[in-house]
Structures are given as structure tokens and as C-alpha cells.
Specification:
The chain has 274 residues and is mostly helical. It has one domain. Helix content is 75%, strand content 0%. It has nine helices and no strands. It is globular and about 55 Å long. The N and C termini lie far apart (62 Å).
């Protein structure tokens, strides 16, 4: 068993999840709502438990559900869509309240809907990545120890990033957080479609030569590969980069992303004129 793919799997998926958690934690700390970190940590803990349990269950029944690969794609598609809905709601909420931070702090983040949203976002983010790792690890495709080492490496890097933001002012951190969330939401909608179509192909519901699978471009054998490329992995984690998207995936991802950025700019202009 090759060890490098196991490390990359743990590091890439771990960093993708932990970085979003780290930025969220730093943001709620900056707005003096540090007590809400417990909600995030509870979501992370629940997500880890769900990852292991669901990974074990799905692995046991994988042969009845289309095999490991197809089953994982189906899970990734469904989990990504749920995460997309939650993150998108959080983005819209942040855009609408970003121009009045004091009111945002005093009112909105204190209500039950907002605090519960933090819990569910953290849970889905961790469960989405964790279940994929668990399924493949339990199936013997990756080395447990090396995967865990990759995850711990991603955790350490995320902690360093968390503390590197300590001197960033609230306004800048708000913009960093919101921009990062928009990029990740765009990736989620594209990735959900990609994995969903792949799962349907695995179940024989879509022909392998369907126009749906026509690639916009393919850089998977280059340094820009989102799976193992030295540039592709950080681009993937930071900007939602995917190195071999289908045309449908590519168009939907970036139409959604630019629409969200456009809505942010439009909302700021509306507030400036009022």
C-alpha cells in the first residue's frame, strides 16, 4: 500500500474542513461571542462520531449499494448539497448584517437559529469529509495511521492559520470569512453535481458517454491537480479549484460564485445609498 496517497487524502480532506472551522472560530471570537465556540466544537464532535459510525455502516452495506466508489460519490453529492444550503444561508445572513456589526453582535448571533446554524454547519462540514475518509479507510484503500497523520498535519496548519489572524481587524476578517465561504459554497454546488452524476452513472442511470461528462478542461496530471498537485491542493482548499470539471459543473459553480459576490457588492451599494 502506497503511503503518500493515504497522507494526501487525510491532509487534503482534513484541511478543507478544519480551515473553514478555524476561520469561523476566529470570526466569532473577534466579535466577542467566544462562548459560541462551544456550538462549533459540539458540531465538530458530532460530525466525527457520525463520520466513523456512518463510514462503518456504509462500508458494510457497500456491496448492496453499488460498491464503495459509487456509494461514496452518492454520499458526497448529498452531503455537499446539505452543506451548500446551510453555508449559503449563513452567507446571506452575513451579507445582510455585515454593514451594522454592533447590531449583528447584539441581536442576530444571540438567537437560537443562528447558534444552531453554527452547530449544524460544523457537523455537516466534518461529516462530509470524515465519512469519505472513513469509508475508504475501512475498505482498506488507505492506511489508518498515515491518514490520521495527514489529518493531524492539516489540524496543526489550521491552528497556525487561526492564530495568524489574531491581529486582523474585524472588518478585514469579516471580508476574508465571507469571501472564503462564497468560494466554498460555489465549489460545493459544482462538486455536488459532479459526484451526483458520477453516482448515477455508477448505478447505470446515465450513460458513460453522455454529454454531461464532457470536460471543460483536464489538468489532473499536472501540478494543478486538486487531488495531489503541489499547487492544486492549496488552490482547491482556498478557492474551490477543481482540476477536471465537467462543463455543467464548471458553469454552475462559477455562475453561483459570481452571483453571490455580485449580491454582496449590490447589497453594500444599497446600504451606502440609504
Amino acid at each position: 500500500m502506497t503511503q503518500l496517497p493515504s497522507f494526501i487524502m487525510g491532509f487534503r480532506e482534513g484541511l478543507e474542513a478544519f480551515l473553514l472551522i478555524a476561520i469561523t472560530l476566529k470570526y466569532i471570537t473577534k466579535i466577542d461571542k467566544g462562548h459560541l465556540k462551544n456550538k462549533v466544537f459540539q458540531g465538530v464532535a458530532a460530525g466525527l462520531v457520525i463520520s466513523v459510525v456512518l463510514g462503518l455502516i456504509l462500508n458494510q452495506f457497500s456491496e448492496y449499494l453499488g460498491g464503495i466508489s459509487t456509494l461514496t460519490k452518492l454520499w458526497e453529492s448529498l452531503a455537499s448539497m446539505v452543506a451548500l444550503i446551510l453555508v449559503s444561508l449563513f452567507i446571506i445572513w452575513m451579507i445582510r448584517h455585515g454593514t451594522n456589526m454592533s447590531k449583528f453582535v447584539q441581536d442576530e448571533l444571540s438567537n437560537n437559529i443562528s447558534t444552531n446554524a453554527l452547530f449544524w454547519i460544523a457537523l455537516i462540514i466534518i461529516a462530509r469529509e470524515g465519512t469519505e475518509i472513513a469509508i475508504f479507510s475501512f475498505a482498506g484503500k488507505f492506511s489508518y495511521g498515515v491518514v490520521i497523520f495527514g489529518i493531524l498535519s492539516a489540524l496543526i496548519l489550521s491552528i497556525l492559520i487561526f492564530y495568524s489572524l489574531v491581529k486582523v481587524n474585524l472588518s478585514v476578517l469579516f471580508k476574508i470569512t465571507l469571501a472564503y465561504l462564497i468560494l466554498q459554497a460555489g465549489f460545493l454546488i459544482g462538486y455536488s453535481l459532479h459526484e451526483g452524476f458520477s453516482a448515477l452513472k455508477g448505478y447505470g442511470l446515465i450513460a458513460p458517454d453522455s454529454y454531461i461528462f464532457e470536460k471543460a478542461f483536464n489538468l489532473s496530471n499536472s501540478l494543478l491537480s486538486h487531488k495531489d498537485g503541489i499547487f492544486g491542493i492549496p488552490f482547491h482548499v482556498l478557492f474551490g479549484w477543481y482540476s477536471k470539471p465537467e462543463w455543467i459543473q464548471f458553469i454552475v459553480q462559477y455562475v453561483f460564485t459570481f452571483s453571490m459576490f455580485g449580491y454582496w457588492v449590490w447589497h453594500n451599494k444599497q446600504n451606502a445609498t440609504n
